[in-house]
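Structure first, sequence second, as always.
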C-alpha cells in the first residue's frame, strides 16, 4: 500500500544508496552512460547538490530501504523562471503504486513556491510509463532541448506551465 512508503527530503546519509538505485534503474532501462543522468557528477553527492537555493530532492523509502527519488532545480543556463524536474527514477518495487504522482505533485507545488512559472524535463523514448505520467500532469512535448543540462543522449523534451 502507498501509505507504507515514505517520501521525505534527501539526507546526506542517502548519497551512496541513492546513487546505486539511480544507476541500477538507468542500466535497467538501457540508458546510455554518457549524455544522461548516469554521468552527472552530482550523482554521488545528491544531498550536497540540492542544498542550493531553489533546489529540492526527495526520496522514496520502504521499511528503511531507499527506492528512488526526484528533484527540481533551476534549469541550468536557462531562463530564471524555468525549473527542471530531475532524476525521477524509482526501483521496480516502487513503480506502479502512485508514488510518481505523489512526487510530481509535491515537486511542482514546491516549484510554484520557489517562483518558477514553467517546468522542463528530459527523458528517454523507452520510458513510456514515465511519459504517460508526465502527460497526465500537463507536460507537453517540445521540439528542442532547453538550457544546458549535458543530457545530449535524452531525445524527448517536455514542458509544463505552472501558473
Amino acid at each position: 500500500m502507498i501509505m507504507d512508503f515514505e517520501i521525505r527530503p534527501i539526507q546526506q546519509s542517502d548519497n551512496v544508496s541513492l546513487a546505486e538505485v539511480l544507476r541500477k534503474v538507468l542500466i535497467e532501462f538501457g540508458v546510455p552512460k554518457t549524455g544522461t543522468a548516469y554521468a552527472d557528477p552530482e550523482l554521488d553527492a545528491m544531498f550536497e547538490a540540492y542544498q542550493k537555493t531553489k533546489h529540492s530532492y526527495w526520496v522514496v523509502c520502504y521499511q528503511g530501504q531507499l527506492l528512488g527519488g526526484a528533484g527540481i532545480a533551476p534549469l541550468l543556463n536557462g531562463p530564471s523562471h524555468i525549473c527542471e524536474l530531475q532524476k525521477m527514477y524509482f526501483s521496480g518495487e516502487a513503480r506502479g503504486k502512485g508514488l510518481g504522482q505523489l512526487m510530481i505533485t509535491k515537486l511542482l507545488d514546491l516549484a510554484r513556491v520557489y517562483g518558477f512559472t514553467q517546468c522542463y524535463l528530459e527523458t528517454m523514448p523507452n520510458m513510456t510509463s514515465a511519459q504517460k505520467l508526465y502527460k497526465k500532469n500537463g507536460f507537453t512535448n517540445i521540439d528542442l532541448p532547453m538550457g544546458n543540462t549535458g543530457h545530449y543522449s535524452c531525445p524527448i523534451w517536455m514542458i509544463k506551465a505552472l501558473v
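Margin note: The beta strands are 5-9, 56-62, 65-74, 82-90, 118-123, 140-142, 156-161.
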